[in-house]
Predict the 3D structure of the following.
Amino acid sequence: MGNVLFPLPIRPVVPVTGEEAGYPVGRVFCVGRNFAAHAAEMGNEVDREAPFYFTKSAANAVLTDAIVPYPPGTENFHYEMELAVAIGTPVFRAGREQAAASVFGYGCALDMTRRDLQIRERQKQRPWDLGKDLENGTVLAPLTRAVEWGGPAGQRIWLEVNGEIRQDATLAEMIWSVADIICHLSGFYHLRPGDLILTGTPAGVGAVKAGDKIRGGIDGLSIVGLELAAAE
Ligand code: MN
């Protein structure tokens, strides 16, 4: 690329377990309400007609074990533990086989949320961006190649805060499977390498405060962690 007026925006490069080359993050898509028990705890019904999505900026993502300030503008900052799917080959209007073949790998991710802002905007029928697309608001653990992990098959997904378990479920509870999501989402986007899809969180979401340490895992994948420092 030619001269630029200021440094190119930072985009995270997620390590790949056991490999030298990392995975540069392009776009981040998130699935809403993909676990019935979480939809219920948020006072929502699951829409079984089709998945729905919101997006988060790649520039707002950080790698696992970051220490980040408690974010501005919220008094109800929540964790959401999720399975991230990393696209590895371009796919558009995918069939199920294409969907499966398009996955590069999987990782643990946190979809951090200013819940008070998300709910306030939702009640006013406005977009969720203030609640969801916050700085340092996506946390990404190293990816594991699909061939190494095998894909979701009922693995345990869990999250703890300061060593206390808060979310504990299995990937069998996902309403929309990874293939369902890729088939549907690729009807609206030309999915391509660099695209991450966060597939929704189980029940047990809750607030964290400055000083808290979050850890989350999915059987067979690298753990994701985040530490909250004091607000700026
Ligand atoms: Mn989420």
Notes: Residues 143 and 203 are 24 Å apart (CA to CA).
